[in-house]
Amino acid sequence: MKSEKEKMLAGELYLASDPLLMAERLKARELLHRFNHSRPAESQLRLNLLSDLLGKIGKNFWIEPPFFCDYGYNISCGDDVFFNFNCVVLDVTPVKIGHRVLIGPNVQFYAATHPMDHKVRGTLLESGKGIIIEDDVWIGGGAILCPGVKIGARSVIGAGAVVTKDIPPDTFAGGIPCATIKKLK
């Protein structure tokens, strides 16, 4: 029988109240508290805390605090990735961010989701769908990325967009819901 963590990572229904998952979220919150309350001049401490928190970070990686996530270990980032202030990543399943990705302030990554059926939702089961951001993407401030979306390489997501479906490569997209505005090539 699968553990609640194994179900979570597989994108299946799981109970977030599982003691192991609760302990892992607490560990992430402790690291985030230290990161978010570090002094601006403590850049090496910040990088060390992020290395302890996140699954993978590439070279020239930076996050401006405050930053929030559920577990951290499900977040992997390539080289030259920048998160601006106040971003949230609900990483119950993998959130993969490619190389040379710019993430504006207040961007939200929602890999976590809940059942649409109220009876199932009432059991407190939840699930997740991974998010993929390919190389050379820019996500404008205040954008929301919904569970399971993929942003294609070299695309730009306009500020305030709510991304509910995949965005193809080389696309400028925006709005609510997010839709193609124009091709970039």
If you had to describe this structure to a student in words, what would you say it looks like?
- Strand 18 (171-174) and strand 19 (179-183) form a beta hairpin.
- This protein has one domain: 3 Solenoid (UDP N-Acetylglucosamine Acyltransferase, domain 1).
- The relative contact order is 0.11.
- Helix 2 (19-36) packs antiparallel against helix 3 (43-53).
- The strands form 4 sheets. The protein has a 7-stranded mixed β-sheet, with no helix packed on it. Strands 3-6-9-14-17 form a 5-stranded parallel β-sheet.
- It has 4 helices and 19 strands.
- The longest helix has 18 residues, at 19-36.
- The radius of gyration is 16 Å and the shape is globular.
- The mean pLDDT is 97.
- Helices cover 21% and strands 28% of the residues.
- By secondary structure, the chain is α/β, with parallel strands linked by helices.
Strand content: 25-35%
Q: Return the structural class.
A: alpha/beta
Number of strands: 19
What helical percentage do the residues reach?
Answer: 10-25%
Give the full name of the CATH homologous superfamily.
Answer: Hexapeptide repeat proteins
CATH fold call: UDP N-Acetylglucosamine Acyltransferase, domain 1
Can you tell me the CATH class? Mainly Beta
Topology order in helix (H) and strand (E) letters: HEHHEEEEEEEEEHEEEEEEEEE
Q: What number of domains?
A: 1
Low-confidence stretches: none
Strand order of the largest sheet: 2-5-8-13-16-18-19
What is the end-to-end distance?
49 Å
Radius of gyration: 16 Å
Major pleated sheet: 7 strands, mixed
CATH architecture: 3 Solenoid
How many distinct helices?
A: 4
Mean pLDDT over the full residue set = 97
Overall 3D geometry? globular
